[in-house]
Specification:
Layout lengths: L1 H28 L3 H27 L2 H32 L26
């Protein structure tokens, strides 16, 4: 049973590493802010979670699990918040292509009339 758990941990670490590398490549390759934010948050967080699960499986300790739970919760709380704040700042700076937005919910904050959906 121990060998199987080690194999599962290795597979999870490999999958998590591939997702983290994919996120890094997405940040470098994508051209606009929303796609970069998507690449920075979605695969990176999932890769991190897979690696944390692999660590918990490999070490098989309640102390390790007790340490990993707050780390995972903090990651789940801060990654979307950071992406949201970067996206809002990019919108305010004008670095987001507004013609690609489906709806512009922040137009009211700038004192503009929001455009009709699906322009």
């Amino acid at each position: 049973m121990s060998e199987w758990l080690d194999i599962v941990a290795i597979v999870l670490v490999a999958c998590g590493a591939v997702l983290c590398v994919t996120a890094a490549l997405g940040i470098v390759r994508f051209t606009d802010v929303p796609t970069r934010l998507h690449a920075a948050t979605k695969p990176q967080v999932l890769g991190f979670l897979l690696i944390c699960v692999a660590i918990a499986i490999a070490l098989r300790s309640w102390a390790v699990l007790a340490f990993l739970v707050p780390v995972v919760l903090i990651q789940l709380a801060t990654a979307p918040l950071a992406a949201h704040m970067v996206g809002r700042q990019a919108y305010r700076n004008g670095t987001i292509r507004e013609q690609q937005l489906y709806t512009d919910e922040l137009a009211r904050d700038r004192g503009e009339q929001p455009p009709a959906p699906g322009r």
